[in-house]
Amino acid sequence: MKLSPLLQTFVMHFGEMGSRWGINRTVGQIYALLYVSEKPLNAEEIAEALGFSRSNVSMGLKELDSWRLTRMQHLPNDRREYFTTPDDIWVIVRTLVEERRKREIDPTLSMLRDTLLQIPQNSQEEHAHAKMQEMHDLIEMLTNWYTDVQKMETERLVNLLKLGSKIYKLYEFKDKFTLVGGGKSKITKGTL
Amino acid sequence: MKLSPLLQTFVMHFGEMGSRWGINRTVGQIYALLYVSEKPLNAEEIAEALGFSRSNVSMGLKELDSWRLTRMQHLPNDRREYFTTPDDIWVIVRTLVEERRKREIDPTLSMLRDTLLQIPQNSQEEHAHAKMQEMHDLIEMLTNWYTDVQKMETERLVNLLKLGSKIYKLYEFKDKFTLVGGGKSKITKGTL
DNA sequence: TAGTAATTTCAGTAATTACTGAAATGTAAA
DNA sequence: TTTACATTTCAGTAATTACTGAAATTACTA
């Protein structure tokens, strides 16, 4: 398989971007290729399309699998393994966030918690302690927020995102007004 | 300056994490050290505390400066440059997001826009085109959301984050009820 | 303006990470 | 089982990135 210039551009870009993250060029390109590919690809096809060795592709796919970003399947009368990315792009986003959280945030939070248990011995440690506490609380707030919205179904989440800060206007009314419902419920202060 | 075990742990952790991002170990450690440090540090002190060469520290500080994550100042009767991180952790977070956006998101969006201008020539390109459009729209939605909430002052943003998905309950009422204000305003359908 | 201290640059080297090809292992049909 | 692929592993090598020390530049002081 030879890549058309259109796909070429896309795939190469993700190669570059990959190396800007921790992920390497190969892995970025493989993922991009699978993402835009019409049909599932086997390792041989990927290697040929990207000009990597077969073994390199094998390692790249293993890496992607550890990120839970690929799906593997078999085709009738073909022993080779075929790979795709999830159809739903929101599944991809959610997986990415979860994995990065697991690999980057969780260990950091745990290091901070452990460190914060120690009693500061001097003013230097006192100051460091306070700064770490601040960082800990901020990360915790952000991850709690994500844990919460991540539970929403996609359609609702999209609505919330599209609303952005505008929803805050509504929130402000909570304290200014008593909101009288037209149905069974009645929203009063403290409901939220 | 010798680092106490407490600081050591913190600084080393950010070294490791740094290399998990595109940022290298040195840069991660320098930043962590400045973050927890009680007072501004000069390059010499940083080099000594972390065991790096003076020139390496110089390059690291330059890198951090390009991320706008450090502040430089002078002390009375001292020609050396002293470095700190911003006091307000929210400034740090906002800067980080902005810079990552500039370096990673914006180029990607621009590549996608350029590519999407091309007319797909076959079914393969057709499919790729559709997938790229999907990615483009999603990234745009997320960045628009960020652009929007990023304008809020920190206190409000924190409120919004703490509310999480709960605010959505309020949003739902919008369609079910007519909300009657106690002041001048009245919220009706279409206000948001 | 010369002299000195501080910082940056950069060429060379060290360390790390990426990649390959060959061998080993796994897997399914005959 | 045996055979014929398919996939993974891994040691060796290539490529990249990180780091240092010396030299050059910049900035301040006297």
Average of the residue pLDDT scores of chain A: 89
Shape of chain A: extended
CATH superfamily of the largest domain in chain A: Winged helix-like DNA-binding domain superfamily/Winged helix DNA-binding domain
Number of helices of chain A: 8
Q: What fold name goes in the CATH topology slot of the largest domain in chain A?
A: Arc Repressor Mutant, subunit A
Care to count the β-strands of chain A?
Answer: 3
Largest interchain contact = A-B, 77 and 77 residues
> Major sheet of chain A, described briefly?
3 strands, antiparallel
Q: Label the CATH architecture of the largest domain in chain A.
A: Orthogonal Bundle
Ranges of chain A where pLDDT stays below 50 over 5 or more residues in a row are 177-192
Spatial sequence of strands, sheet with the most strands of chain A: 1-3-2
Structural category of chain A is mainly alpha
Rg of chain A is: 24 Å
SSE succession of chain A? HHEHHEEHHHH
CATH class of the largest domain in chain A equals Mainly Alpha
Which oligomeric state applies? homodimer
Proportion of residues in extended strands of chain A: 5-15%
* Overall structural domain count of chain A: 3
